[in-house]
DNA sequence: AGCACGCCGACT
DNA sequence: GTCGGCGTGCTC
């Protein structure tokens, strides 16, 4: 009996593959095998097949080749390999991230029926058999005259899927394979393009081979319409399109818009909020080419798409494209790599592009497509003003002029939003007598006062306790909350505007599934006219009647150690501002600041992100900061900071002789977190090559001799410093 | 990462 | 006398 020898990548943090024996032809490259590994059984992906036995005596046989995963195509394997090499991660872990969970389990996947359509063999015979009183069953039987998806069946009744199974067993219903779609999609009526949009669409449609485009335009400038037109063009050529979006809660809105435009297309959405089975089915639909549009969050970048013709990355600057746990990849950067590898156009959209993308556009590697401000539907740009807070006494943290504008807006019948990026009642509780403040025992952070349930909470480690009745140090009973959080602002506004009670929206009161949607519905209905919220409200949600936005604590990002903080603040403020005045009325945005003279605000008030980005880029060049240099960050945490620092110093030593500059290890900016003391080692080089080599070298070193009592992370191209 | 084996404290 | 603490070692 001839055997194959398989090189298999497993989801273990080891930087190598493992060899197995298998019956000849049992599994090919890119397919899934189930293998014994130590005392456990794991799922792995075959990377190579050889007929000659490897030089290893303890070789084991595979346990099974379930054949439930269509072989990952060479381009996806190449993408995963690039990701593993670039981010110094084991290939098996990258592959695991690329597969839906059901295809990572060491057991065969058996839920594939859902990509099929269901149809009655003889609907009239079925109806004749059913009781006249079984209304829902009859409705389903009637529906099944034409092929239906599992989802459509489920919508008929809670038990409908069970009836379907029974009828299928009785041969009354059969599964039919969906047609693989090709050709021009049917399209719902689409709005007229303006000149800039038309030029952008033409440019993308004309692209042959790799081409990267930066679609630069603010909220309301019509970026989505450009996406839809270029997507339609690719579908018309029989191709598939991958659309990446930053976050799950943005997917339904965009998805609805896509479905509306392409009513006959199977549009598949892929994100981590999906149930395992559903995600696996959607993924398989995309892999088989049944779904031509894939809309997903960062994990969707790995989806095998046989006829891929275009990749769109919406809000390309958004931090959520960066995976922060496990393999720390940037889905945006991988998307560009994939487009280049497959010789496709990639369209990066943003009102506030990342400086990385800006640099590429400036230097001509990406082509910039400008959409002028608010060109669509008569929308007008909001007026942005700065309110200096140095001299004026604030009322509960709010400038009197801001209160006055709020009053006027509400009196006019408009909606207003007060934006404060800090939840809780106040960020710290302090003693007036002795200077005690509510610090967290396990973190270098303050416990935040939550009045709703009368607790002090650490927002970093989750520690919480009751509010002390007196100062733990001096016994003073006069403890004062310092500073504002969403709850305090809510209270303040509630007492000032009793006729229009404020609604607070932050993570504290939207934990339950669906509660955010319920609250947003109240806002849309006009039931709520005064809103208080955190950055949760900055993204995606459009409130037609929102006329005024007040931003309370913008300054926090202004003097950060992180050189990207200003860029993020600009993006966030512009995004919040974009919420105001969408339906023809100009919105007002008021930003409270203690530093009105800061050059940052000059750029913001001018609404000129391009000028700001040019300045930022010039500064990065001057100071040799990314993207004008390449960075690698090694983060370490141990029970004692000395251990973390010593560990990093040893790593630094291990880099001598390499073409990188390794800095002195330093304590992290919040050095104590959840009882661990954290430090970081920065490694830089003018280009990526040496940095990637250094990362690989350290990863190999650490895998061979893992340190004791130290947790570590290798972060190539770190986004938070 | 799991999941073993492996030697030292409080319990049926 | 055992149950179990997590230290360290290996996985084709």
List keywords for this structure.
six-stranded parallel β-sheet, globular, 5 domains, seven-stranded parallel β-sheet, alpha/beta, DNA-binding, Rossmann fold, 721 residues
What's this model, at a glance?
Pfam families: DEAD (PF00270), Helicase_C (PF00271), PriA_3primeBD (PF17764), PriA_C (PF18074), Zn_ribbon_PriA (PF18319). The protein has 721 residues and is of the alpha/beta class.
What's the overall average pLDDT, rounded? 91
Main sheet: which strands, in order across? 10-11-9-12-13-8-14
Structural class computed from helices and strand pairing: alpha/beta
CATH homologous superfamily identity of the largest domain = P-loop containing nucleotide triphosphate hydrolases
Helix content: 25-40%
Q: How is the quaternary structure best described?
A: single chain
- Give Rg in angstroms: 28 Å
Q: What's the CATH class of the largest domain, please? A: Alpha Beta
Shape: globular
Q: CATH topology of the largest domain, anyone?
A: Rossmann fold
Q: Architecture of the largest domain, CATH level 2?
A: 3-Layer(aba) Sandwich
Distance between the termini: 57 Å
Please report the total strand number as a whole number.
30
Largest sheet: 7 strands, parallel
Counted by DSSP, the helix tally is: 20
